[in-house]
Amino acid sequence: MDLINRQRPGYVITLERQIRFVHEHHRALISQREVRGSADQELTAARGALREQPDVVVIDDLLSAEVFQLALDAAGSGRLVFASVTAPSTTAALTRILELFPADRRKGIQSLLAERMRGAIVQVLLRKVGGGRAAAREVVLATSAVARVLADGQVQDLPLAMESGRNHGLISLTDSLGQFVRSGAIDVREAYRKADDRDALLLALKRENVDMSVVERLA
């Protein structure tokens, strides 16, 4: 939001469970709104926000299928939409989203996701060796392989689609954690605790001859 605020004019509305950072107006006009109630209250707030014709919409925590449908519709009308879901990985987040919808609606939602999702980021905070924090990030971009996975609803195959998109900047959380371990910034036990796929992390680090004996006892 800060980058958008500094680089482009426009009207931004955020719907947040709790406002932790207040944005001052720079090039954009930002209206931050707390929505701490139920899914119905979030839906009412989202409908009200979209009636104001914002250029950018931020939804802090998707609570219902109806709100996600609104987000997809807003993206389809040309608005930039940011939405967050609490989940340990992109695969888990997409699974949770699709499960919000009844089975007879999922095929349509899958098609809209494939068409309108531009990317996803998962962030995990880690304790650094020597103090401080570091953020390991999974980055998913809408390559053709990712779009096919979304359209087919085979989100369990997303890691394979991401593997084929490394040259386009896609990176899994496993790879991101592995980079921190190899650089010495993060202890392998901390990475293991925060990994969404611990077996994959163990295998990847073993291939690079990283001593995994300390975490194999935890496995």
Summarize the structure.
With 219 residues, the chain is of the alpha/beta class. It contains eleven helices and six strands. The mean pLDDT is 92.
What's the arrangement of secondary structure elements?
Layout: H1 2-7, E1 10-16, E2 28-34, H2 39-51, E3 56-59, H3 65-76, E4 80-83, H4 90-99, H5 103-116, E5 119-127, E6 133-141, H6 144-152, H7 158-163, H8 173-183, H9 188-194, H10 198-207, H11 213-216
Parallel strand pairs: 1-2, 1-3, 3-4
Antiparallel strand pairs: 5-6
What does this molecule look like?
The protein is of the alpha/beta class and 219 residues long. The protein has 2 domains: 1-84, Rossmann fold; 118-219, P-loop containing nucleotide triphosphate hydrolases (Rossmann fold, 3-Layer(aba) Sandwich), CATH 3.40.50.300. It has 11 helices and 6 strands. The protein has helices at residues 2-7, 39-51, 65-76, 90-99, 103-116, 144-152, 158-163, 173-183, 188-194, 198-207, 213-216; strands at 10-16, 28-34, 56-59, 80-83, 119-127, 133-141. The strands form 2 sheets. Strands 2-1-3-4 form a 4-stranded parallel β-sheet. A two-stranded antiparallel ribbon has the order 5-6. A hairpin with a 5-residue loop joins strand 5 (119-127) and strand 6. The longest helix has 14 residues, at 103-116. The chain is globular and about 55 Å long. 30% of the residues are buried. The model has no long low-confidence stretch (mean pLDDT 92).
